[in-house]
């Protein structure tokens, strides 16, 4: 089934070329079905790429999904044009009166700042507080996951000696949890971050359950036991070349970045990286949509 997005969103052409079923609002409105309403708070600087990545995963399910994008009104984007934001994004003030089946909060390149020094932190806090009553289930990604754990549980992040970047092997700790249904015992996923969350801090909270970890990358997936929030410290949504783009960007800036781990074949950055995490990424998002959004959200969202 399709994702419902504006027909002129840049992601549409890419998704249609991949045979992802994209439906215009006009066509969807004549179908007698209530789509899932999903809100995406996109904090990434490369917003257009992130839109495509997330929509690709949301579109690979048997559910009709209506997607809205918001961005922080208190932050001026340096990498996305004002015309794109005006055409395809709303602000929190525009949607705060509404309720949503699910919400995705992306990562952001602000890890080295204390949370309170991020220029849109107050707005972020307001959105996270609002989500408790206006969103059934929230999927937090990378810095978004760290922000969610900090705000909801007081769990802080800690700086790594160097950037953690690459494709890491992970172990499923709870294969019977619905979010991990269908996962192999071990799976690959990308990480790209400068900070980490300590496992022992998660274990202090009986409301949280660790679903997957990596021997090298540490914590990966944490579930709030009621299924109302999930915290994913990596970037399952990344494309094949996303880590390469980040790496060469930093090379061109003269930052001498660490070569992404287990990414380029033979550690040769001239070779094309294999896409070893694609199926896991689709499974993660489809499980979230099915088991914790579609099957649990009230048909009438006013009953949230």
Summarize the structure.
The chain has 10 helices and 12 strands. The chain has helices spanning 11-17, 25-28, 47-58, 82-88, 92-95, 121-134, 143-153, 199-203, 242-252, 278-294; strands at 3-4, 22-23, 36-41, 65-70, 89-90, 100-105, 135-141, 158-172, 186-196, 208-214, 218-224, 229-232.
What percent strand? 15-25%
**Largest sheet, described in full?**
12 strands, mixed
Give me the count of strands: 12
Computed structural class: alpha/beta
Integer tally of domains: 1
Give the N-terminus to C-terminus distance in angstroms: 25 Å
Average pLDDT number:
91
**CATH class type:** Alpha Beta
Shape assignment: globular
Helix content: 25-40%
Number of helices: 10
Question: What would you say this structure looks like, in words?
Answer:
With 304 residues, the chain is of the alpha/beta class. The chain has one domain: Rossmann fold (3-Layer(aba) Sandwich), CATH 3.40.50. Helix content is 30%, strand content 25%. The chain is built from ten helices and twelve strands. The protein has helices at residues 11-17, 25-28, 47-58, 82-88, 92-95, 121-134, 143-153, 199-203, 242-252, 278-294, and strands at 3-4, 22-23, 36-41, 65-70, 89-90, 100-105, 135-141, 158-172, 186-196, 208-214, 218-224, 229-232. Strands 1, 2, 3, 4, 5, 6, 7, 8, 9, 10, 11 and 12 form a twelve-stranded mixed β-sheet that branches. β6 (100-105), α6 (121-134) and β7 (135-141) form a beta-alpha-beta unit. α1 (11-17) packs across α3. The chain is globular, with a radius of gyration of 18 Å. The protein starts with a strand and ends in a 10-residue tail after the last helix. The relative contact order is 0.14. The model has no long low-confidence stretch (mean pLDDT 91).
């Amino acid at each position: 089934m399709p994702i419902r997005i504006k027909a002129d969103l840049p992601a549409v052409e890419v998704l249609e070329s991949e045979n992802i079923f994209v439906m215009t609002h006009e066509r969807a409105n004549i179908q007698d079905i209530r789509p899932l309403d999903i809100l995406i708070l996109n904090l990434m600087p490369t917003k257009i790429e992130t839109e495509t990545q997330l929509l690709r995963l949301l579109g690979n399910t048997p559910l009709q999904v209506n997607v809205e994008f918001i961005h922080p009104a208190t932050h001026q984007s340096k990498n996305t044009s004002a015309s794109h934001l005006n055409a395809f994004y709303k602000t929190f003030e525009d949607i705060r009166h509404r309720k949503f089946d699910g919400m995705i909060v992306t990562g952001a390149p602000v890890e080295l700042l204390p949370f309170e020094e991020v220029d849109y932190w107050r707005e972020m806090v307001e959105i996270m507080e609002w989500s408790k009553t206006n969103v059934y289930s929230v999927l937090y990604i990378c810095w978004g996951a760290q922000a969610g754990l900090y705000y909801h549980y007081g769990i802080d992040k800690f700086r790594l000696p160097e950037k953690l970047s690459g494709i890491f092997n992970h172990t499923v700790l709870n294969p019977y949890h619905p979010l991990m249904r269908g996962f192999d015992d071990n799976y690959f996923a990308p990480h790209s971050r400068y900070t980490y969350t300590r496992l022992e801090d998660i274990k202090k909270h009986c409301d949280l359950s660790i679903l997957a970890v990596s021997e090298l990358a540490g914590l990966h997936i944490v579930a709030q036991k009621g299924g109302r929030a999930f915290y994913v410290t990596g970037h399952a949504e990344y494309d094949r070349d996303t880590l390469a783009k980040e790496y060469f960007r930093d090379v061109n800036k003269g930052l001498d970045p660490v070569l992404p781990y287990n990414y380029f074949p033979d550690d040769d950055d001239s070779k094309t990286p294999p896409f070893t995490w694609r199926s896991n990424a689709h499974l993660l998002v489809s499980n979230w949509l099915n088991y914790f959004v579609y099957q649990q959200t009230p048909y009438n969202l006013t009953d949230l």
